[in-house]
Amino acid sequence: MGAVDLMNDVASLRRATRVEDDQGGWSEVLAPVADSAGKVTWFVQVSQPTATERVLADADGQNIDAKLYLEPDCPVAVGDLVDIEGDGLGHWLVLSLLRPSRQVYVRADCRRRQGEGDLR
Would you list the domain boundaries of the chain? Predict the structure, then answer.
């Protein structure tokens, strides 16, 4: 049984993208992220950070609410918003990433964001 077999939720990504406003400026919108094959959803597993991980994150000025384990080919980046289908917990802002040398998953340390306005 591999790491992907343990991932029991489905997630999509959104990334801040600059769009010209036809007046010489730009605005920032959250656009869906797809990989090179057009895939827009990935399997994910939500895990709680340990007490040690929370303390280390607090020392770095980050507040981690969860660790998300995503498929190894997921094009997630720091600053992305992860939306998990049906979790009812809002959106997850990616603060940092860990990609092990053996590509079995991508771990994203995240903070929960709620609301409809600026989610970053």
Answer: 4-113
75-80 contact pairs (CB < 8 A, 24+): 75/13, 75/33, 75/34, 75/35, 76/13, 76/33, 76/106, 76/108, 77/15, 79/15, 79/16, 79/120, 80/13, 80/14, 80/15, 80/33
> Domain 4-113 belongs to what topology?
Thrombin, subunit H (2.40.10)
The CA-to-CA distance between both ends of the chain, in Å, stands at 36
Q: What kind and span of H or E run contains 15?
A: strand 9-20
Residue position matching structure tokens 């992305």: 80
pLDDT at 117: 54
The Cβ-side half-sphere exposure at 95, using a 13 Å CA radius, reads: 17
Q: Which of the given ranges, 2-11, 22-31, 84-93, has the highest pLDDT on average?
A: 22-31
> Shortest CA distance to 107 belongs to which of 49, 26, 33?
49
Residue of 53, 40, 59, 35 whose CA lies nearest to 109 = 53
